[in-house]
Structures are given as structure tokens and as C-alpha cells.
Specification:
By secondary structure, the chain is of the alpha/beta class. Helices cover 52% and strands 11% of the residues. Helix 2 packs antiparallel against helix 3, helix 4 packs across helix 8 and helix 5 runs antiparallel to helix 8.
């Protein structure tokens, strides 16, 4: 049985907060922002209910903002900054991994990128201490032994990345995965959406050193199966081993029957909806295999 993650009541204020942030980044026209909010209120009044898809709803809102403000990439500066800050701290992370180079620590580091949100550090934040704490904390759900078995079993992997900044730390996990002699395809967004990684962002940090970078053929929050390209659908449908990073991809994949695939979710519960769905606490990190979530 597939368990779809639909919207909770507290998704609504989150949609509006994200819309406000995107509008503030995209333009300075206060009248246009009022007009956009009117559009969004109308859209939500007609489409927001308990059966709505969180990913599809959010994606439609952000697409409308981009089109009406004529700003194709509102988060452009934040994305560049995220990559720059993460690259700055990459040597520190590598040194810490040298002390314990196991797969679980590489997974934790990859999730750390999702937790820290590299474009939003406050002055005085001690990043090294945060990284050390992350390595010492236990995963709330830890399927690393299952992951290692599947890395030894499969020949091909589809790796769904999430945000810029975060993708810098993905490099370390991808490098570890290459030790298992596995072919990796790294999926990015076709066009900008929020601070998600696109082809340009992935090439900027050198992800192409670890696998073939491919596009999902859409600018959606996570994977919205109805929106991805025909080419990517074929790749996805034929992939029996997938690693999914972040909240958006988790939400999107709950809409898809994954019972014939080995799928691993790596994320930090940064929102109450995901924490409730996974029965974990806010800010906890997980590595979980799909059958624990979808099959009963």
C-alpha cells in the first residue's frame, strides 16, 4: 500500500511565507506583490484541501511568482552564496571524516547540508562545532546497514539532489559511494525553483566528477511525477536503486508507488509536517529505506 503525504493544516501558512520570501527577492513593486497575494489567496481557496499535493501546490505558486515578476530565478544570489559558504567549510568536513571514514558518517554529513541551509548563517555561528555535533548525534532512523548491502548489490544508482550549498556535502557521500563501483546518475532541476540545484549549480561545485548529471525536465519542488519530462520518467521508472535528498523529494516520492525499488531518504525534519509524518522530532536526521514507510 502506498501512503501519500498530503497537506496538513499548517502547510497553508508555509505556502504564504515562502511566497512572501520569493516575492521580496524577485521584485520591489509593492502593488505587484499585493496583486500576487490576491492571486495566491484565490488559488489556495480553490485548490487547498486535504487531498492536495503539497509539492504541486507549492510549485504552482512559485511558477506564478516567477512569471508575473519576470524573474526566472529569485534565489540566484542565495544559491551562489550557499555554494561558496559550503565550499569554504569543505576542508574542515574532510578532516573530520578522515578520523572516521565510515558510510554512516558520510550520510550524516550529506544530511548536515540539508540541516544548515548554507545561505542563512548568522554572524558568529560556529560551523565547525555544528558539524562535530552532527557527527556525534545518532540518526533518529538509521538504515545505514541496509544501504551498504544495497550499494554492494546494485550496479546503478539514481541520486536526487536537493539544494545548492547542500550539494557540496553531497560530493563527499558520492565519493564514498564510488568506492562500491557503482554507476551514478545525479538528477537536478531543469529550471530554477527556490534554492534547488540546477545543472549550472551542480557543475559549479564539480558534481560531474562523481556521475552523469541529468535533468528531471521540470522546475518543481521535489519530484512531481506528472510534471517531469518523458525522458526522466523513463530513467526514474527503470531505476531500482534511488537515494533521495531533502524534504521536497521525500514529499514528492510519497505520491509514487516505490514498492519495486530500493529507495533511501536522507533528510533533516525541518518542518512539523514531515516530523509528524515520520514520527520523529523537529531537527532530527534520518536515513530510512522506503519499505519502512510505504509497504504494509
Amino acid at each position: 500500500m502506498v501512503v501519500n503525504l498530503k497537506v496538513y493544516y499548517d502547510c497553508a501558512p508555509c505556502f504564504l511565507r515562502q511566497a512572501r520570501d520569493a516575492m521580496d527577492l524577485a521584485c520591489d513593486d509593492e502593488d505587484l506583490k499585493i496583486e500576487l497575494m490576491e492571486d495566491i489567496f484565490k488559488f489556495l481557496s480553490e485548490n487547498y484541501d486535504s487531498n492536495a499535493s503539497s509539492n504541486k501546490t507549492g510549485s504552482q505558486i512559485h511558477k506564478h511568482i516567477k512569471e508575473k515578476t519576470n524573474c526566472a530565478d529569485p534565489y540566484y544570489k542565495q544559491k551562489k552564496l550557499g555554494n561558496q559558504i559550503a565550499l569554504k567549510y569543505l576542508p574542515i568536513v574532510k578532516n573530520l571524516l578522515d578520523e572516521n571514514d565510515n558510510l554512516e558518517n558520510h550520510v550524516k554529513i550529506a544530511i548536515l547540508g540539508n540541516l544548515l541551509d548554507f545561505g542563512a548563517f548568522e554572524l558568529g555561528t560556529n560551523i565547525e562545532d555544528l558539524i562535530k555535533k552532527n557527527l556525534n548525534d545518532d540518526l533518529a532512523i538509521n538504515d545505514s546497514e541496509k544501504l551498504e548491502k544495497d550499494l554492494k548489490k546494485h550496479k546503478d544508482l539514481l541520486y536526487l539532489v536537493d539544494n545548492t550549498g547542500e550539494i557540496v556535502f553531497d560530493k563527499l557521500l558520492l565519493s564514498k559511494i564510488k568506492d562500491y563501483n557503482i554507476n551514478i546518475s545525479i538528477a537536478v532541476k531543469e529550471r530554477p525553483i527556490l534554492n534547488d540545484a540546477c545543472m549550472e549549480d551542480a557543475l559549479e561545485v564539480g558534481l560531474d566528477e562523481y556521475g552523469d548529471i541529468i535533468s528531471i525536465g521540470a522546475d518543481t519542488i521535489g519530484i512531481v511525477y506528472s510534471e517531469i519530462s518523458k525522458d526522466f520518467k523513463e530513467i526514474f521508472d527503470n531505476s531500482d536503486f534511488i537515494i533521495s535528498k531533502g524534504l521536497g523529494n521525500y514529499e514528492g516520492l510519497t505520491e509514487i508507488d516505490l514498492s519495486n525499488k530500493d529507495v533511501y531518504f536522507l533528510l533533516c525534519a525541518k518542518c512539523s509536517t514531515i516530523a509528524k509524518d515520520l514520527d520523529i522530532n523537529m531537527q532530527e536526521m534520518i536515513l530510512v529505506k522506503n519499505r519502512n514507510l510505504f509497504i504494509s
